[in-house]
Design goal:
The chain has 198 residues and is α+β, with helices and mostly antiparallel strands. The protein has a single domain, classed as Beta Barrel (Lipocalin). The protein has 4 helices and 10 strands, in the order ααβββββββββαβα. It has helices at 2-21, 33-39, 166-176, 191-197, and strands spanning 42-48, 55-62, 68-77, 79-93, 96-98, 106-111, 121-128, 134-141, 148-156, 186-187. Strands 1-2-3-4-6-7-8-9 form an 8-stranded antiparallel beta barrel, surrounded by 4 helices.
Length: 198
Amino acid sequence: MADARISSVLLFAFLLTAVSADNGVVQNSTVDVVKFVEENRKVWVYRTTEPGNVTCRLDTYTNVTATEALIFRSFLNGTRIEKNLKAKFAVLKDELPHEEGPPFNAMEINDLEIQREYTLIEEVFEFQSDAGKCAVVMVLDNTSGFTATWLDLRVSDTSVGTGPTKECTDEFEKILSYYVTKPESRTSYSNECKRNSS
């Protein structure tokens, strides 16, 4: 399992390198994860390439400091699932996490109840809209015992009714075009999600 995780991490880093190298496709200079989380305490996954049938993924951020935040994550996967997580803000530099910062462009996320020898989820904010209401996020997920990677288009709860801006949608599609085999993206959010979240 460790070999598979290492291979996935290297593949993830390679993809980030390839995307970053093309005429500044990844707009990391405009990304500030702390600012995004402070201004958008509730964030929905609007579109995703995540395998499976997870929908209505909502992150609610609390106890936000300059270096970390608590996340209450809920989603539907047949039934409603809820998780309490802790995010440590990080900087992705040369495709590897470093302790320096801010501004931060990534989060290292772990379960509050279960301690692991590895980071549960890494989320790298590849793009953030000028208005700060949507973002394109690359996810490295170890929750199932193996590593999966996908791309999310995330939108603030206050803007989800109108959807992501064109700049976010275009950046999401642009990054997907750099995959050797373009993954299928699917809609994760519907109006039912918000109605069922309260």
